[in-house]
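Bug report

Summary: structure tokens for FlgN family protein differ between web form and batch submission.
Environment: batch mode, default settings.
Steps: 1) Submit the sequence below via batch. 2) Compare with the web form result.

Sequence submitted:
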Amino acid sequence: MSTQVLRGLLQEELNGLERLGQALQEEYLALCQKQALAIESAAEKKQAAITSLEAIFHDHEERLRISGLPSAPEKIRAHIRACAAEKHSPLATLWEQWQGRLRQCREQNQFNGNLMNRSRHHTLRTLAILNGQELKSAAYGPEGDLLSPASTSRSLLGRV
């Protein structure tokens, strides 16, 4: 497998991940400021970055297949490990950056989703109070979702 080809592909993917990371950061700031238009704009940028990354990934799989190079992630990882052992450290460094940025994007996206769920819950509670509805105590699940009182007691007791 050509190290140069793989480096080029990884760099292109890393650039896409950087754009996604920026969009996720904008989304986070908009969520914190509770600005509906900024949230909508950030969501559009995030979706555009995801669509772009999906196209890049698909194109890279095709380019690897056409060139006769393996496209399976485990074979790519094995090649990068072999290159690192041969002192092709720029490829190994790029791979580590790629993995780190992917992890950051995943974590930021989860955090943003949890923040949205909490904000939605707060809004629903406020509406319930304004409508004179009875409020029930509630708990949050692992993803930040509001759990119903029945599922809360079952799930919490099931974990003890």
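Above is the batch result. After comparison, the two runs are identical; trailing whitespace caused the diff. The first helix runs from residue 3 to 33. Residues 21 and 140 are 26 Å apart (CA to CA).
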